[in-house]
Amino acid sequence: MSRIGRLPIDIPAGVTVSVEGQDVAVKGPKGELSLSVARPIEVKVEEGQVLVTRPDDERESRSLHGLTRTLISNNIIGVTQGYSKGLEVVGTGYRVAQKGTAVEFALGFSHPVLIEAPAGITLTVEGNNKLTVSGIDKQAVGEAAANIRKIRKPEPYKGKGVRYAGEVVRRKAGKAGK
């Protein structure tokens, strides 16, 4: 049995989980998320807990069991606490500035790069080199942060670029001078 899949998920106060066939809807104080569960996996709500079960020990059922439980748990955490990912802009002349709901980056290109926040995501700027991506959907927050980092990845010689908060960039020695 899956160690993660068999664990029940406690439903906190203020959160409602409804299951209709293979669709699981989670509603909480921060918003509403839904998930479509793959076919062999079954989800039940009993006594303030969500239980995820599988009908057999087939390879596909085993692989989906823990995944489904984790996705439902992430949705419950998302509607209660939310998720956030920090980004840092490192480099001489590299800056980030808030422009309404959008964010403007100066990253050494000939033009400033303007990024609009996707639906359900908020971008907040602290100082001129820190950015926080936050929202209730863990996957959407991670994807938005990855797309922003993709604009100018940290390079290995000076470490300049957009990196995750706390990310360690492996540095190379560069050319040996005379």
From TrEMBL:
Domain of life: Bacteria
Keywords linked to the UniProt accession: Ribonucleoprotein, Ribosomal protein, RNA-binding, rRNA-binding
InterPro entries: Ribosomal_uL6-like (IPR000702), Ribosomal_uL6-like_a/b-dom_sf (IPR036789), Ribosomal_uL6_a/b-dom (IPR020040), Ribosomal_uL6_bac-type (IPR019906), Ribosomal_uL6_CS (IPR002358)
Any one cellular-component term (Gene Ontology): ribosome
Domain Large ribosomal subunit protein uL6 alpha-beta: 11-82, 90-164
Cited PROSITE patterns: RIBOSOMAL_L6_1
Annotated TM spans: none
Pfam families per UniProt: Ribosomal_L6
Record-stated family: Belongs to the universal ribosomal protein uL6 family.
Self-association state and partner proteins as the record states: Part of the 50S ribosomal subunit.
Functional note: This protein binds to the 23S rRNA, and is important in its secondary structure. It is located near the subunit interface in the base of the L7/L12 stalk, and near the tRNA binding site of the peptidyltransferase center.
Protein name, UniProt field: Large ribosomal subunit protein uL6
